[in-house]
Sequence to fold (201 residues):
Amino acid sequence: MIKVENIDVWGFAHAIRGMRNPLNSWVKSDSEFYGSIDIGPNDLDLMRRLYKARPEHRKYLRQIFVSMDITAPFYWYKEYDTYKVGTVANSCSTMHKIAAKEFTIDDFSHEHLEDLSLLEKTVAVLNEARNNYLETKDRRYWWEMIQNLPSSYNQKRTVTMNYENVISMIKQRTGHKLDEWDEFVDILKSLPYIEEIMGDN
Fold:
């Protein structure tokens, strides 16, 4: 399970302005940024050519930013966290807020489980530890929650990345065995001008 909300993209204006600095070619810029992003054919052509060149020539991609709220299981975040360079994330705190609410089965990704009995038992164990912790404040019950928490537990994070990160994820995770990656890649491909910049590459 993955849920992506509150997508915000910004930085095209300054990225395109900077992209034209090396050859002082600002006069050729033909994009509009009044209320919407409308990239002109001259700018898009240069964006594509720089994209196809080596990464040091497409620095403009690192100046276009995207932020979003992602709710996904820990097992997905383990792979997402390989993209640490140029990304920032603020997550809901498991350490501080694990006992804030009763655990339910829907706190976990379980769409591929045919038998939920083991997960249901785990939820019951977590809730027993939670109740004991709330009554006694004894940290051993807090440890029971932390160390029994499955990797299918869903966490919400607000993440910020740039278009270079986005393109790396699209290229490296398309066709991944995790459904979450397939869904996330589709969302990334829908960001403004991503597919136009990448073309067939």
User: Anything to note?
Assistant: The first strand starts at residue 3 and ends at 10. The CA atoms of residues 75 and 151 lie 5 Å apart. The radius of gyration is 22 Å.
